[in-house]
Design goal:
With 252 residues, the protein is of the alpha/beta class. It has a single domain, classed as Spore Coat Polysaccharide Biosynthesis Protein SpsA, Chain A. The protein contains nine helices and nine strands. It has helices spanning 31-40, 59-67, 80-90, 108-121, 142-151, 162-165, 194-204, 213-222, 234-244, and strands spanning 4-10, 25-26, 29-30, 47-53, 71-75, 93-100, 125-127, 138-141, 172-174. The strands form two sheets. The protein has a seven-stranded mixed sheet with strand order 5-4-1-6-8-7-9, sandwiched between helices. It has a two-stranded antiparallel ribbon with strand order 2-3. It is globular. The two termini are 31 Å apart.
Length: 252
């Protein structure tokens, strides 16, 4: 019997540039709850799992998961790959789409495209190219994830994509059939700096309570000044990610 398809929401409380950002509130709702809301709109996910750490400070994130009627899994603090693998095994997951806890406007539509693509192609690793930053992360098979965990030689895997894209362990695919509305590189929808929080607050307070990513993009098309609140941070954010990205392989 085949395993489940899941959305793994990856989040932990520790953050330096914007402390406790997952618990900041907009319209009396925690930022992480906006990610959960969008994930719940998926038509193809069998389960949603909030993947966090064993650190006591993340007890509160587990309570958020319980209050929102989704599962949670607690694993390694720094080894994101291992945390996902153990979560996949515990929940009998064959393929999952990741949703970063910073990405309040992640698109369930793009997640569902990844689930459909995996069904067609038996995909191992799906990445988005040229998409609005924060709208989609990755789709990953547990089979490919197991291989990545076998070849890595570090538990520092926060920036984990290189273990799939640079090692030849699996076929890397780009997300297919993406609607043109998502093909933009001039919008930043991820929560890392105080200006990002101002951006999210501005947009959310301007929308109806039940919104999706298309509603966000429609608003930004009409209110381009909102894009300018935080987009200037994108280059610094990318540079910081590049600095933290390493590929350490064992010799087996």
């Amino acid at each position: 019997m085949s395993g489940a398809k899941a959305i793994f929401i990856t989040v932990r409380s520790a953050s330096t540039r914007l402390p406790n950002k997952a618990h900041l509130t907009i319209n009396n709702k925690k930022t992480i709850e906006y990610v959960i809301e969008q994930a719940k709109k998926s038509k193809f996910a069998d389960t949603i799992v909030l993947c966090t750490t064993l650190n006591p400070e993340d007890d509160s994130l587990c309570r958020v998961a319980e209050n929102n009627n989704i599962k949670y899994f607690r694993g390694s603090t720094d080894d994101k790959l291992d945390r996902w693998l153990q979560a996949a095994r515990e929940n009998n997951v064959d393929f999952f789409v990741t949703a970063d806890g910073d990405d309040l406007f992640c698109s369930y539509e793009l997640m569902d495209l990844a689930f459909q693509q995996q069904e067609r192609n038996n995909s191992d690793f799906i990445q988005g190219k040229g998409l609005v930053s924060g709208s989609f992360t990755y789709g990953i098979s547990t089979k490919a994830l197991t291989k990545a965990c076998q070849i890595k030689d570090t538990d520092q895997t926060e920036m984990m994509w290189v273990y799939f894209t640079e090692t030849g362990i699996c076929k890397v695919e780009n997300l297919e059939n993406v609607p043109s509305v998502y093909l933009r590189d001039d919008i930043r929808m991820t929560l890392d700096y105080k200006e990002d929080f101002v951006f999210f607050k501005t947009v959310i307070e301007s929308l109806d309570q039940d919104f999706d990513t298309r509603d966000v993009l429609s608003f930004l098309n009409k209110n381009t000044e909102a894009i300018e609140i935080n987009y200037f941070l994108q280059d610094a954010w990318k540079h910081n990610q590049q600095i933290k990205t390493t590929l350490e392989l064992n010799n087996e």
